[in-house]
Design goal:
With 453 residues, the chain is an alpha/beta fold. The protein folds into 3 domains: 5-123 and 218-303, P-loop containing nucleotide triphosphate hydrolases (Rossmann fold, 3-Layer(aba) Sandwich), CATH 3.40.50; 136-208, Arc Repressor Mutant, subunit A; 406-451, no CATH class. It has helices at 13-18, 35-42, 58-71, 87-101, 114-124, 140-153, 163-175, 194-207, 213-226, 228-237, 251-260, 286-289, 291-294, 311-321, 350-366, 384-393, 410-423, 428-434, 444-451, and strands at 48-52, 80-84, 111-113, 136-137, 210-211, 240-243, 267-271, 299-303. The strands form 2 sheets. Strands 3-2-6-7-1-8 form a 6-stranded parallel sheet, sandwiched between helices. A two-stranded parallel sheet has the order 4-5. The radius of gyration is 25 Å and the shape is globular.
């Protein structure tokens, strides 16, 4: 049964009261923008692609554009769809808009990450994909435990075909927008058992009234594809759509956006094809490269003035990226002529690199530089071990930025599982996690007997 249009959230009285255009110097928020930034802010109608190089003020342009749309009365806050890639970016954007134009920015109900916005839509129409609106979103740990059960039930060696590898494969399929019945022949896992495992996994999720992060978008795509009138209602509701980091979108995110955007709609995508580095997790740089084909007559605006780096750094970066033939092209420039030249040093291995860096740190310290003014950036956290060992040996004080995320800590997962079980008695995965936490002398065998009662 198709959910009625009235299921879409109506503006609240509090929203209507707040959504008044600011009085007084309404255009103060435009002060300080360079010509290209201002053009990106004021070109509000029709499809717009903003190619924003690193350090060119992309976030300021995005937030000011939003503020401009609201301040000039082109749309109400609840008529804007704004998607980002991280919760931090969404919070920062919301705070900046509020700082620019005050209370009229409140009521931005559709500003968030792809997954958070998709979750809002899915909770309103969950029954269309066989779920209840109270569905649970599984974390990685619960997902892998469920997949392990399915692998064992299918008599598949979980050491050879691990739950983690199956989770990665299913995530890949969902990032491509593939449901179990639409898997291409070449996609497989465990010698031909991939499609059956995927279907069994989705069936088990439905039984648990749960979904994983990939389902948030995949279920949205299913709903909007099968119910054209519902998709059209969302397209009418979202008068303006803004997308951040467009170069990092995957196929599922692209399909979702296309279903919510008409070909002549007011959609603004901000990104940089030169910064597309997430192909390994499904990002499709072609999404940004074909923007003008997807939206004929689109306006392309290039932000090329860099406010972050020196001329030497820009020169080195530009020389490297120029070798890429598949790019839309732009030339970053800066007025900052200061700074040292970029040095490239070659070493044999990680230990040699750690020794070299530690020596340079000690040299800089003897020349009067403070430790707090030095930083070591690594590509992956495992590379830190050699540096930490060397720093400890030489008594160089350091702080590691990063570590386990709050919600990934065992005690937080346990507390979350208790809350999930309170919300839904059908959540077997949450039950399995906390049935013996704290220790109650209940083993795996007892748990399986309980589950089969």
């Amino acid at each position: 049964m198709l959910a009625p249009v009235t299921d879409l959230p109506a503006p609240r009285i509090s929203d209507l009261a707040r959504a008044q255009a600011p009085q007084g110097a309404a255009n103060d928020y435009l002060a300080g923008l360079n010509p290209e930034q201002r053009e990106a802010v004021e070109t509000t109608e029709g499809p717009v692609l903003v190619l924003a190089g690193a350090g060119t003020g992309k976030t300021r342009v995005l937030t000011t554009r939003l503020a401009h749309i609201l301040a000039t009365g082109r749309a109400k806050p609840w008529e804007l769809l704004v998607v980002t890639f991280t919760n931090k970016a969404a919070r920062e954007m919301r705070g900046r808009i509020g700082h620019l134009i005050g209370p009229s920015s409140e009521g931005l109900r559709w500003l968030g990450t792809f997954h958070s916005v998709a979750a809002q839509i899915l909770r309103r129409h969950a029954e269309l994909v066989g779920l209840k609106s109270s569905f649970t979103i599984l974390d990685t740990d619960d997902q892998e435990r469920l997949l392990k059960q399915l692998l064992e039930a299918a008599n598949i060696d979980t050491k050879r075909f691990t739950p983690k590898s199956l989770a990665h494969m299913i995530d890949h399929w969902k990032n491509r927008g593939w449901t179990p019945d639409k898997l291409p022949p070449g996609e497989d896992f465990a010698n031909g058992k991939g499609p059956a495992l995927y279907a069994a996994y989705q069936s088990r999720l439905a039984t648990l009234n749960a979904c994983d992060f990939g389902d948030l978008l995949l279920h949205n795509i299913t709903i909007l594809s099968k119910h054209a009138d519902l998709a059209e209602e969302y397209r009418r509701r979202f008068r303006y759509i803004l997308v951040d980091e467009y170069q990092d979108t995957n196929v599922a995110q692209y399909l979702w956006l296309r279903l919510l955007t008409s070909s002549t709609g007011n959609v603004c995508c901000v990104g940089d094809d030169d910064q597309s580095i997430y192909g390994w997790r499904g990002a499709e740089v072609d999404n940004i490269l074909r923007f003008e084909r997807d939206f004929p007559g689109a306006k392309v605006i290039r932000l090329e003035r860099n406010y972050r780096s020196t001329k030497h750094i820009l020169g080195a970066a530009s020389a490297l990226i120029a070798a890429n033939q598949d790019r839309l092209g732009k030339t970053l420039w800066t007025e900052d002529d200061s700074g040292d030249k970029v040095r490239v040093r070659g070493v044999w291995d990680g230990e040699a690199e750690a020794r070299l860096i530690a020596d340079e740190i000690e040299t800089a310290r003897k020349q009067g530089m403070n430790y707090k003014d030095m930083a070591v950036l690594v590509r992956a956290s495992f590379q830190m071990r050699a540096f930490e060992e060397r720093f400890l040996m030489l008594a160089i004080p350091y702080v590691v930025i990063g570590g386990p995320r709050f919600f990934e800590r065992a005690e937080i997962r346990d507390a979350h599982a208790y809350l999930r079980l309170i919300q839904s008695e059908d959540d077997d995965l949450a039950f399995e996690r906390i049935v013996n936490v704290p220790k109650r002398g209940i083993g795996d065998t007892s748990v399986q007997k309980i589950l089969h009662i």
